[in-house]
């Protein structure tokens, strides 16, 4: 069976608000095989690194999931994202609360590192490296962060 969707750029958004552990939204731009290849942007659910192609995304209320996915669309339009098998771009939004920005970035980096180490756990533990690509204030109390996650 031919691959129906050929992604060119992807950004992953960790799912929150009651989704199972190691769940992500994959926001991707690429070509889908219709009568002819057609450029599309789509959101797919990913569970433990496996795309659930026929499962519609769900965005829990009272989380940043939906807004973060919308922001990922804009970043794809700007040319951000990757289709590498060994590297991912991961977008996260968090409330700053009483955290210093650097501390919130460090905490989020650690959470992403733990998630991917857990997701790829097996007989041979992969090397996971997480590095901040950029961060920006969404408003006075919300920080958006884009990380590059390299897995080898």
Can you tell me the overall shape? globular
Please identify the structural class as seen in this structure. Answer: alpha+beta
Q: How would a textbook summarize the main sheet?
A: 4 strands, antiparallel
> How many distinct domains?
1
Helix content: 10-25%
What is the ordering of alpha helices and beta strands?
A: EEEEHEHEE
Beta-strand segment tally: 7
Q: Span from first to last CA?
A: 29 Å
Mean pLDDT: 93
- Sheet-strand content, in percent, reads 35-45%
Poorly predicted residue ranges = none
Number of helices: 2
Give the strand line-up of the largest sheet: 1-2-3-4
Backbone CA Rg: 16 Å
Care to describe what's here?
- The chain has 152 residues and is an alpha+beta fold.
- It has one domain.
- It has helices at residues 65-77, 101-119; strands at 5-14, 23-33, 37-47, 50-52, 87-95, 128-139, 142-151.
- Strands 1-2-3-4 form a four-stranded antiparallel beta sheet, with helices on one face.
- Strand 6 (128-139) and strand 7 form a beta hairpin.
- The longest helix has 19 residues, at 101-119.
- It is globular, with a radius of gyration of 16 Å.
- The mean pLDDT is 93.
Key features of this structure:
152 residues; alpha+beta; four-stranded antiparallel beta sheet; three-stranded antiparallel beta sheet; 7 strands; 21% helix; 43% strand
């Amino acid at each position: 069976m031919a691959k129906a969707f050929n992604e060119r750029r992807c950004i992953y958004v960790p799912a929150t608000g009651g989704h199972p552990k190691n769940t992500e939204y994959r926001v991707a731009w690429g070509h889908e095989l219709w009568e002819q290849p057609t450029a599309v942007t789509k959101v797919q659910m990913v569970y433990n690194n496996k795309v659930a192609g026929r499962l519609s995304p769900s965005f829990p209320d009272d989380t940043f999931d939906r807004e973060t996915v919308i922001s990922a669309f804009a970043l794809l339009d700007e040319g951000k994202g990757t289709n590498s098998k060994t590297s991912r771009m991961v977008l996260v939004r968090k409330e700053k609360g009483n955290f210093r920005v650097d501390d919130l970035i460090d905490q989020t980096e650690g959470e992403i590192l733990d998630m991917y180490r857990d997701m790829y756990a097996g007989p041979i533990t992969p090397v996971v490296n997480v590095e901040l690509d950029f961060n920006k204030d969404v408003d006075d109390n919300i920080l958006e962060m884009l990380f590059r996650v390299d897995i080898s």
